[in-house]
């Protein structure tokens, strides 16, 4: 009965909100004037720590203006389990009533308001209930009552997750932005086919189970890497640019209601260890979301601090630190304006017993026994194509990981970093097992730059890292106890639609005539990237033998700025556009001899953007069958939790002898 009532209330609230469902919103997770975060439809792992934020909005002006701009300060919050009698929220958790907070914020209702610079102003009254946990599986109804007769309800589900462990370790490979279309294109350029049959395959192709992941954000159907990673790691959807939190309307990035991530639960409750490997900045969204809690993925310095030391200024779990942390983004580590509070973060890691390495030679020399930090350059790691084929591009980058202006030339690849991480974690894991996330970040970064060859090179490097990991685990006798997953966080609208005769294209003067060089259907021919005639790179099996064939793949994306295309490999990294005034135009120095196509994006977009597509999930290991079918990105968190037996009950509880979990332990509801 209770749930019927709450559905009616939610529907009413949605109808009465004049701009609900528009792309510009007061607060995406909050269609009515009362906000409950975590919102309706949220799922929880039993015992997973989280905060509750409630807000009451009083719009001062704009289409929603109401209540004279005075928010109700006497709102009430209750919680009810499975239709039981609602209880006062603070009471149910044995908390003192939190203090009332007040602020205001502004938002634009649409593009006309933005052009006219007429923001709508909203006054807010709010409270935060911090560090909570629900242990009993079931449905919980949280109700915020305000303005006398209005309510906002949220139905929460605490999922029934097994306490029985099926795998000891989990390795989660993420090809950032990687789609099935990209995997298909990578296979085409790296694996030879005879009469339509591939003679070798991607390692991913050998995985026994494949699933399909929906990447929709909490409040937008095109996602970004922060909230999508956060969904994979925490089982909670969030909003663009946010990780480990639900986005509230306050200005402070760090006071938003937090949710605990897989590595935090795994370490706090189960004493497992974890690691992260990325070709991006370690502060970038995909690695940072493992341990980060901020509404802005750009709080780079603070996110690295959170990885090592836990969340500053809140009593939240401090047991977050990785055992292995390999990647790039040295500017967040040597003391400078980008490192947290200007401090030497290398020193902080060393003080916590990490071996610190800054080049490939030292990485390979690391033993298996110690925790390790490896940061190999400033900025993102140069991509596989530049590290292995067009190596002159490594010169002049002034990306010395120690902070000098020299070039970082002794660079590891993803396979080097991954196999070393596996050795260390597998050796240090004890009975508790390990969780490792490995990200091929530049699949996404190069797709943004419309540099398809660089993106596919890094996708092939990811496949190489997967191949090497499986071989290494087998040699170490750890393969059978390890669940291996390969997936993505979102995609780009990329595909190959034929081949392009680059010589014919270049020889034509007329832009329209150039398009005749594109061979479709029968004229696409066969892959020229795997021909033995031009084996000059020595980059080994499972990579192209020739990156500069006459007949190149004709590929493109659905979302792009104005651009010039000639389909040839870019011998130096691609810059598709130039800025003139506030707009971007096709870069006259890019795609020489090619033809210009009009963009499909706003003219202030310099690069391509993400798309809606579902992404694949490949599974190999003791829990592989859990990953069949079509499911939500958040389900990956619950499937991994099921596989590792992360369900807890009150008795085994927090496992914390650190006295940090008082709120959730002091007095539990509904038992
Ligand atoms: C709302 O009020 C603010 C502050 O007075 C003003 O700047 C803004 O233009 C107003 N917005 C609308 C939509 O009237
Ligand atoms: C609440 O009461 C006000 C004032 O009587 C009324 O205008 C409004 O429609 C009511 N809202 C709901 C959701 O019942
Ligand atoms: C923590 O609190 C201090 C003092 O109020 C403040 O300067 C700092 O910015 C806060 N840090 C974070 C990450 O919120
Ligand atoms: C690699 O780093 C070590 C210190 O860990 C240093 O002694 C060595 O010179 C570096 N090698 C190169 C090629 O930069
Ligand atoms: C398409 O490109 C041409 C040539 O640059 C330009 O004149 C035209 O305005 C563009 N069309 C749109 C819709 O942007």
UniProtKB/TrEMBL annotation:
Keywords: Magnesium, Metal-binding, Signal, Zinc. The active site is at 225 (phosphoserine intermediate). Binds 2 Zn(2+) ions. Binds 1 Mg(2+) ion. The keyword Metal-binding applies. Zn(2+) binds at residues 176, 444, 448, 489-490, 610. Residues 649-658 have a biased composition (Acidic residues). InterPro entries: Alkaline_phosphatase, Alkaline_phosphatase_core_sf. It comes from the Eukaryota. Its cofactor is Zn(2+); Mg(2+). Its EC number is 3.1.3.1. Transmembrane segments: none annotated. GO terms for molecular function: alkaline phosphatase activity; metal ion binding. Residues 649-671 are annotated as: Disordered. Mg(2+) binds at residues 176, 284, 286, 439. Residues 1-21 form the signal peptide. It holds the Pfam family Alk_phosphatase. Belongs to the alkaline phosphatase family. PANTHER family: ALKALINE PHOSPHATASE. This is alkaline phosphatase. It comes from Emericellopsis cladophorae.
